[in-house]
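Please produce the structure of this protein holding S-adenosylmethionine.
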Amino acid sequence: MAEDLNQKYGLNAAHSEVVSACQVVNPGDALDMGCSGGRNALYLGQQGFVVTAVDVNANALGQLQSIVSQEGIDTITPRMYDISDATLDADYDFIACTVTLMFIDSSRVDAVLADMQQHTRVGGYNLIVCAMDTADYPCPMNFPFTFGPGQLSAAYKGWELVKYNEDVGTMHNGARLRFATMLARKTA
Ligand SMILES: C[S@@+](CC[C@H](N)C(=O)[O-])C[C@H]1O[C@@H](n2cnc3c(N)ncnc32)[C@H](O)[C@@H]1O
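Below is the modeled complex.
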């Protein structure tokens, strides 16, 4: 069994939805949007994906780059990229965006989703996990963006929703709110 690089470098385990998605999504070209220190990128790399890992945090990217260099990994490329630009320049089989969209300016989210969709190959997948603000669980955090009920599924009309829920979850600080969780496959 391959060495657990997340554990070796003191990173949290990959997001549970990334781990679950890997039961469904075959390895290919992956984009990790908002990669932070690289917990998901390293996991995807170990599953056989060729990963572009983007973030605006230079320190986080530096941390991931240093792991990639130390381990001699040539299948993970950390890159500075502002997601809100919505100007992806390559196509992917899998785009993962876990707990990141809520940090994007709300006026840019439609463009970001459209860009992700456009740059996903037919048969490829998007994974999104994002905070919601609902009447029963008002979002207690001051995020620039949160999804409303049904908003994420509506944005993926025409895609196959392999997994979709808006379940209540708990943040690290104990805050309870709903999260839109979606694994969707581009069918045409
Ligand atoms: C809560 S962390 C989530 C990290 C990772 N996706 C995960 O599941 O562990 C959110 C990340 O999004 C990044 N981020 C926030 N706004 C961004 C933007 N406009 N463009 C790129 N990355 C951004 C932050 O720097 C941070 O690393």
